[in-house]
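User: Hi! I'm working on a homework problem where we have to compare a predicted structure to a textbook description. Could you give me the structure for the chain below?
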Amino acid sequence: MTSLILITGAGSFVLALALTPWVMWLCKRLSLYDKADARKVHRGDMPRLGGVSLFIATMAFIIFVSAFLDSAYIPLSRMQITGFLVGAALYFALGLADDIYHLSAKLKFVLQILFAIGVAWAGISIGTLFGTVTLPVWLNYSLTVFWIVGIVNTINFIDGLDGLSAGISAISFLAILVLSLVRGDYYFCLVSLAVLGALLGFLPYNFYPARVFIGD
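Assistant: Happy to help. Predicted structure tokens:
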């Protein structure tokens, strides 16, 4: 378990740290910038696809954990893990498409809801309130979809200052990691560590003065 923790945390950190400069170079080659204007606080055109390095580092080590952690410590079925990973990939693909092609808000919102319904259908859902009150199916699905879409857009909308969304996300995942460790939930502890490591590897490029933005 110790080696798995070290590999997951250090690996996701190093991978994000190494990939982000490559993503910045790619943005410059393809002219994929967040252009400065009167409504924005940054000066000059800023590479906006930092989320690519975060996604690759995070997904690589979540898949690694799912494959190598003893199945006795994994509280999810294969279908749930698949739904979780496919849902994440679809949200990433939608955000990447928006960064490149500037999709309409209505289209993005509809697709976000459909993706969240798919994740809930795969079995990733709230399920209970406070771990004791079982929710009716319709309420469980509704709250799950509302939560996923709400969190995705909340994190996206606060990406207006250098290091803000990545910093808040890192603090949040540190809290989830600690809570998972206290509960003995080693799978989600490692999943949180994978995300936290990737965020910490990305933040040196995103703190003020930022050299790259996460993007959608």
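For your comparison, note the following. The chain is about 70% helix and 5% strand. The helical segments are 2-30, 51-68, 78-101, 105-121, 137-157, 164-183, 186-206. Good luck with the assignment!
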